[in-house]
Amino acid sequence: MDREGLSRMLKESAAAVLSYVEDMQFATDPPMGVSVSEVGSYDVWDGYAVLHLQSLPQDTGSLELMVDDKVYSDEEAGFTRYDEVSRTIMIRPDPSLLSLMSISHPRVRVISDMKFLLRAMTAFLDRYSGLIRLPDVPPCVGEPCFPEGSPPSEEQVSAVRAILSNGMSYVWGAPGTGKTQFVLATCIKTCVRDGLKVAVFAPTNNSVEQVLRGILKAFPESELGGGILRLGVPTREFLMKHPEMCEDRQAQRRADRLECSIRNLEEVIFERTCERVRKDVDAIVERLSRMDPGRPPDPDPELEAMISPILALCSAMSGARDSGSDLRKTLSEARSLLYDRDRPALGIPEYSD
Predict the structure, then answer these.
(1) In whole angstroms, what is the distance from residue 90 CA to residue 53 CA?
(2) Partners of 82 in beta bridges
(3) Four-residue CA torsion sign, 30, 32, 38, 39
(4) Domain extent listing, the chain
(5) Which of 96, 151, 230, 302 is deepest in the core (most CB within 10 A)?
C-alpha cells in the first residue's frame, strides 16, 4: 500500500470510529467508550451537591455528569472539587438540576468520556498522516534470543523468525500459546540485545500493563537495562510496583492529586474546628446580649480567652487579625465570616471521626 492510500485509509477509519461512537455511545448500558463511576449517594445543599462515588474515575480531565439518561457537560455540571481519598466530587450545577436531585432522587453517574482520544487521533492524522508509512525494512538482528526454560514449539519458533525477518507480520494464537511471554518477549529481548529500541502498543491501559507483566515474567528485568518507559496513565498498582518505568508527568499527576487531597483534608479539619468553637460563639453572643449596648464591655480575661481562637480561625481565612475596640462588631463579623458561607467539607462523612 502506498503512502497516500495508507493516509486516506487511516483518516477515514478514525473519522468513522468517532462518528460511530458519537451516534451509538449512549445506546448501550454502560455507555460505549466511557468510564462510568456510579454515585452511591449524594447530598444536596444550597447551591451545590456532594457526590459520593462507588469507584474512582479513570480520568478526571474529561468528566461529565449523567443524571438518569441525560448527560451534562463539565460546564453544565459545574465540577468544582474532586477528592480521591474520600471519593467525593462537589458540583455546582443549575438550580433546576439540584432541585431534581433533591426531589426525584434520580440515578447519578460520573462518566469520563474517552472520545477526546478519538478527536485527538483524528486531528493528529489530519496533520501527520502523510508522513506515516508501513515499515519496509525488517529489523537487523542476529539469531533469536529465546528465553531459558522449556524448549519452544515449532510454531513459536516460526512466529519469532517471521517477526524478525519481515517489516510487518501478524501472529495469531489461542490464549495460553505463548504469544506474549514467549514470542513477543523473545523478539523484544533479541532487539534490545542488538541495540534496537522497541515500542509496544496495546488498545487499552490495562492491556499495556498485561503485556509488560508478561514480558517481565519471561526474563529478568535487568536484561532490559532498566530502559523501560511506560507511557500513558498507569494503574495505581503498576505505579506502586514499577515507579521507575512510569514517565515523570504521570508521577507528577499522582503527586498533584495527593496534594489536592491534602488541601481537602485541611479544609475538613478547618471546618470541624469551626464547629467545635461554634458553641463558644453562641455563648459569647448570649453573654453580650445581656450587657448594656450603650457602652463597651468591661475588660474580661475569660471572654478574651474564648474569643482568641475564634479570631485565629478568621485570620486563617482572611489573613487579617484585628479585633478592634468594638467587641460586638468584631464577634458579629467573625460569626458571619465563619458560618455564613458554603461549607461543603462538612458533607463528607468519610472524614468523620
Answers:
(1) 11
(2) 89
(3) negative
(4) 3-128, 137-250, 267-351
(5) 230
Per-residue cell: 93? 450545577
Cell of 294: 450603650
**For residue range 298-348, what is the model confidence (pLDDT) as tens digits?**
667 777 777 888 878 877 776 555 555 567 777 778 888 888 877 777 766
Nearest partner of 193 among 253, 258, 139, judged by Cα: 139
Label residue 33 left, alpha or beta by phi (over 0 means left) and psi (-120 to 50 means alpha). Answer: left
pLDDT confidence tier of residue 1, bands split at 50, 70 and 90:
low
User: Is a pLDDT exceeding 60 seen at residue 353?
Assistant: no
Taking CB atoms within 8 Å and a gap of at least 24, the contacts of 274-281 are: 274/313, 274/338, 274/339, 274/343, 275/346, 277/309, 277/310, 277/313, 278/338, 278/339, 280/306, 280/309, 280/310, 281/310, 281/331, 281/334, 281/335, 281/338, 281/339
CA distances (Å), 289 to each of 285, 294, 299, in order? 6, 11, 16
Phi and psi angles of residue 124, each rounded to the nearest 5 degrees, phi first = -65, -45
What is the distance between the alpha carbons of residues 64 and 76, in angstroms, rounded to a whole number? 9
Mean pLDDT of 26-36: 74
Rounded Cα–Cα distance for residues 128 and 112 (Å): 27
| Per-residue confidence (pLDDT) for residue 284, from 0 to 100 | 82
Model-level pTM?
0.51
d(Cα 82, Cα 87) in Å, to the nearest integer?
8
Give start and end residues of each alpha helix (H) in the chain: 3-24, 74-77, 95-104, 115-128, 154-164, 185-193, 205-218, 236-241, 248-289, 301-318, 327-339
Distance between CA atoms of residues 317 and 309, nearest Å:
13
